[in-house]
Amino acid sequence: MSIIVNKSSISESFKTNPIPTTQILPLDLHNLLSLPDSHTWPTSPVQPPPPSATIPVVDLGRPPHAVASAVRKASDEWGVFQVTNHGIPTTLLREAEFEARRLFALPAEEKLAVVRSPDGIDGYGLARISRFFAKQMWYEGFTIMGSPVRHASHLWPNDYANFCNVMEEYQAQMKALSEKLLGIMFKSLGLAQDDIKWLHSKTNHHPPQAVLQLNSYPACPDPAHAMGLAPHTDSSLITLLHQSSNATGLQISGDGGNLWIPVNPIPGALTVNVGDLMHIATNGRFKTALHRAVVNRTRHRVSMAYFYGTPQEVKISPPMKLVDVDHPLLYQPVTWKEYLDAKGKYFNRALEFIKCEALFIADRCRQL
Ligand SMILES: O=C(O)CCC(=O)C(=O)O
Ligand SMILES: [Fe+2]
């Protein structure tokens, strides 16, 4: 019998790009009375966003054609929108946030006992993007892929079942909603199921890969000089984000980072981010949104990001219907793992590095 070692899953990418331990362990932010130098970010003047700049909200309960055109417009112009009437029970959102808060409220030494390994995906730690920045973020996170039982049973030996049940149910519901939204997004571009066969798991050998990231931003003594989560784009196809409704924190970049537009939480709504893979899969039609999270002096903000990607064997490339003389092929076909490898090296410039060669050279010449 031969054993096939598959090196294409996203966990393999995390093994390829291990993170130094110093870039994993958060300080005990819940007990700091002032901002340490390690967490003090230079401030740069940002303009207030114009009142007309508001992130679209799509009511999924409207007639299908109205939903499709609103989703297309939002993905095209913003790369981000909120959805209401999405069908995920409010009680589940509430319970998942409650369980996330229960985890982050544990004493620092207990959380450090379930810290992520340098080459692993799941567990407690700083944001993976930390190593690309000189200053640390006012942030702690906990990553889940599938069942969190290994870490949860360590944290709560006699009381881990509810955490696990809620997080597993949450992922199942987010998966179904991600698939529904992707269907709407592709259909809105005039594509049929046959154009995007890779999306339908029945034709794939592996299921789609996904990661659930619990994010915690404790109340901060000096929010103006701190950063919750530094500017980045998500590497997923799409991300579904639940943000606690006690504070605004998520912001979308406008005007090349000169202004930041808040995504004000609507209780019960979810935020949908177009990820880099979706930008590649739509040959650039849908925009991937540069975003960040800021922090708050009095409120402990929590968010939960569900990153939905592709099955491990799938090479993402746009359907031929989206490629023509006016829209030449922008990017080389990549698996999620290959893209994450590029992101691990080049971070926010990863898309540039997988550009089709002729376009890459043309861009470079323009910059000279
Ligand atoms: O907390 C937020 O609002 C942003 C989270 C986020 O961008 C992420 O987890 O990638
Ligand atoms: Fe993000």
From TrEMBL:
EC assignment: 1.14.11.15
GO biological process terms held by the UniProt record: gibberellin biosynthetic process
Pfam families in alphabetical order: 2OG-FeII_Oxy, DIOX_N
PROSITE patterns: FE2OG_OXY
Keywords, comma-separated and alphabetical: Dioxygenase, Iron, Metal-binding, Oxidoreductase
Pathway it works in: Plant hormone biosynthesis; gibberellin biosynthesis; Hormone biosynthesis
Superkingdom as given in the UniProt entry: Eukaryota
Broad class of enzyme this protein falls into: oxidoreductase
Cofactors named for this entry: L-ascorbate
Location of the Fe2OG dioxygenase domain: 207-310
GO function terms (MF aspect): gibberellin 3-beta-dioxygenase activity; metal ion binding
Alphabetized Gene3D superfamilies for the sequence: B-lactam Antibiotic, Isopenicillin N Synthase, Chain (2.60.120.330)
Family: Belongs to the iron/ascorbate-dependent oxidoreductase family. GA3OX subfamily.
Protein name, as recorded: gibberellin 3beta-dioxygenase
